[in-house]
Amino acid sequence: MTDTFDFVLPAALEAREPPEARGRGRDGVRLLVGRRATGEVSHHGFGDLPALLDPGDLLVVNTSATLPAAVRLDRISVHFSTPLPGGDGDRLWLVELRRRTGKTSLPYGGGCTGEWIPMPGGTTLTLVRRRTARLWEARLSTDVVPYLRRHGTPIRYGYVRRDWPTATYQTAFAYDRTTGSAEMPSAARPFTPELVTRLVSQGVLVAPITLHTGVASPEAHEPPYAERYEVPAPTAALVNHVRNQSGRVIAIGTTVVRALETAVDGAGRVTPSSGWTEHVITPEKGVRAVDGLLTGLHEPRSSHLMMLTAIAGRNLLTTTYEAALKENYLWHEFGDTNLLLP
Questions:
Q1: Contact between 339 and 320 (Cβ < 8 Å)
Q2: CA angle 81, 340, 285 (to 5 degrees)
C-alpha cells in the first residue's frame, strides 16, 4: 500500500458471501487489532473480542435495521437511499438509479427531471431533480418503506454473487423495523447474542445510538451526505461518565462515530441529539467522543479512511492495512473486522 487512501485491493480479498455460507457462524470472521500506543498489530478471531476489552469499556452500537432498499426493473434498479427532511410524508426520497448488468448493476447516468418510472406493484417513481452526480430527489406514489417490504431486496454490489435474505443483513442490535438503513451497519454483523452476553458478563458496557445510512456505492467514493441520527440521553450520559472515569469509548462502526461526534458540544461533552447530520470526520478535525473503533476493512479512496486516520493516526492505519493485505483478510460487509484501540 503506497498511500493510506489509495491502494490495490485484489479481487480475491472481496468477501463474496456471508461466513455462514462458508460453514462458519456470524462471529467466524477474523479480527485485526491495531494499537495506537505501540503501533503494533495482532491477529485474532472475532470470538476473542471479550479478551481484548476491559471491564468498564463502553461499546456504542447502531440500532438501525437494514431495509430491502433495492427495487429491480427490467433494465435498471432503483436504490432507495434516505427520506428527505421535510419531504412529502414517506414518499420523497433520495434514490440512485443503477443500470442492470446480468446479476449486478452499475451507476446509471440517465434520467431527466420530470421523468416517471413505472415500478412493480402498479406504483410510479417521479424524478424531481438531480441532487448529486448519481443521486436523484424522487417521489414514489405510495409510502416507501411499506413498499420496499413488499417489492425490495437488500442492496448488493458486484462482488456479492447472489441475493441473500434481508435477515442476513440485520445485526444483533437492530430493533426498529419500521424504518432503517439503505445499507447494513455492517461493523456489528459478527456480534451474536452469546458474544454480547460474554461481553456484558465481564463488565463491558453497551449503549445504543441510531443512524440510518444511505447508499454508499463503492464506485463513487463521495463524502457522506446528510443522514438521520439520534443520540439518546442515557447514551450521552454514559459516554461522558466513562470518559470521566478514564474508560474507553469504542464505536461499533463508522456510523456510530459520526453520530457521537455530531452530538459533541463546545466543551467536548456528548449531548442528547437528533436530526440530520452532515458531519464529516477528517484527520484535521479529529475526534472528541470516541477512543477506539471496531469496523470493517474499507475500500481504496473511501471517505471512511479519513475517519479511521483521525482515530488511529496515519502510521497505524497504514501498518494495519498492509497487514490485512499481506494476511489475506477479507473486505466488505461480509468480510473480516478491524479493531483500532488507543
A1: no
A2: 65
CA separation for the pair 13, 3 (Å, rounded) = 18
Residues sharing a CB contact under 8 Å with residue 56, sequence separation 6 or more, in sequence order? 203, 204, 205, 242, 245, 247, 248
Q: How many Å apart are CA 197 and CA 240, to the nearest integer?
A: 24
Q: Please report, for residues 5, 273, 304, the alpha-carbon distance to residue 62 in angstroms, rounded to integers and kept in the order given.
A: 26, 15, 17
What is 148-179 written as a DSSP string? HHHH-B----TTS-S---GGGG--TT--EEEE
Show the cell assigned to 126.
417521479
CA distance 300 to 264: 29
The beta strands (E) that lie in the chain are given as 30-35, 40-45, 58-62, 64-66, 70-72, 76-83, 92-101, 104-107, 116-119, 123-130, 135-140, 176-181, 205-212, 227-231, 249-252, 273-277, 292-296, 337-341
H and E: helices and strands count for the chain: 7, 18
Q: Which three cell numbers stand for residue 59?
A: 461499546
Ranges of beta strands (E only) in 202-324 are 205-212, 227-231, 249-252, 273-277, 292-296
From first to last of its 342 residues, the chain has per-residue pLDDT tens of 444 467 899 999 999 999 999 999 999 999 999 999 999 999 999 999 999 999 999 999 999 999 999 999 999 999 999 998 766 668 999 999 999 887 677 888 889 999 999 999 999 999 999 988 889 999 999 999 999 999 999 999 889 989 999 999 999 999 876 789 999 999 999 999 999 999 999 999 999 999 999 987 655 566 677 899 999 999 999 999 999 999 999 999 999 999 999 999 999 999 999 999 999 898 998 999 999 999 999 988 788 899 999 999 999 999 999 999 999 999 999 999 999 999
**Residue 279: HSE in the Cβ half-sphere, 13 Å Cα cutoff:** 23
